Amino acid sequence: MNRLMIAAMFAVSVSAQQRLVEGKPDSPVRVLIFEDLQCSDCAAFRIMLDEKLLPKYGSKVAFEHRDFPLPKHAWARPASIAARYLQSVDPAKAVKFRQQTMKAMGDIKPETFNDWLRKFCAANGVEGDKAVAALQDPALASLVQKDFEDGVARGIAHTPTALVNGAPFVETFTFEEISAGIDAALKENGVQ
């Protein structure tokens, strides 16, 4: 591997270390979302996030993504690494990747994931071969692993798990349930 490739990988990794946050990044109210991009419950939560939570709370709350690819899902870890790479290119494209990957999960197979990633990149102005090569970047893989280990240390075993200022909402929870938690956190932090 030449020095230019190593420097490029390091630059990607440094950029990808930033947390992907939707909503208000500097909010004192944080919803940490431990998600698996191959999880059907995460896909349902993603719809709730897009259609209900962000419209209602996006101007007040930070929704912070954490990667928690479950070992039982064959392409979840590469998808998390790809999301980290795309985040280093453009955070908005990383959000779109997470949305579209969850939406298309029934069509993606372990043996077709790289082709799916290339197609996503082509449609979104990103060089697909670079994205596929980034799947082998040990620094990106390490960032995903750190998120996973952080989740395990917090007692997380299922996805999605959303922590609203530390209070857990696990797998299948309703909009009303998590809204009540967010409203309480907003009140507790004096955010209107």
Helix content: 55-70%
Q: Determine the structural class based on helices, strands and strand pairing.
A: alpha+beta
Give the CA-based shape: globular
Order of helices and strands: HEEHEHHHHHEEH
Give the amount of beta strand, in percent.
5-15%
- Separate helix tally: 8
Concise description?
This protein is α+β, with helices and mostly antiparallel strands and 192 residues long. 56% of the residues lie in helices and 12% in strands.
Description:
The protein is an alpha+beta fold and 192 residues long. 56% of the residues lie in helices and 12% in strands. It has eight helices and five strands, in the order αββαβαααααββα. The protein has helices spanning 3-16, 40-57, 76-89, 91-103, 113-123, 128-134, 138-153, 175-188; strands spanning 21-23, 30-35, 62-67, 161-164, 167-170. It has a five-stranded mixed sheet. Helix 3 packs antiparallel against helix 4 (91-103), helix 3 (76-89) crosses helix 7 and helix 5 (113-123) crosses helix 6 (128-134). It starts with a helix and ends with a helix. Mean pLDDT is 91; it is low at 1-16.
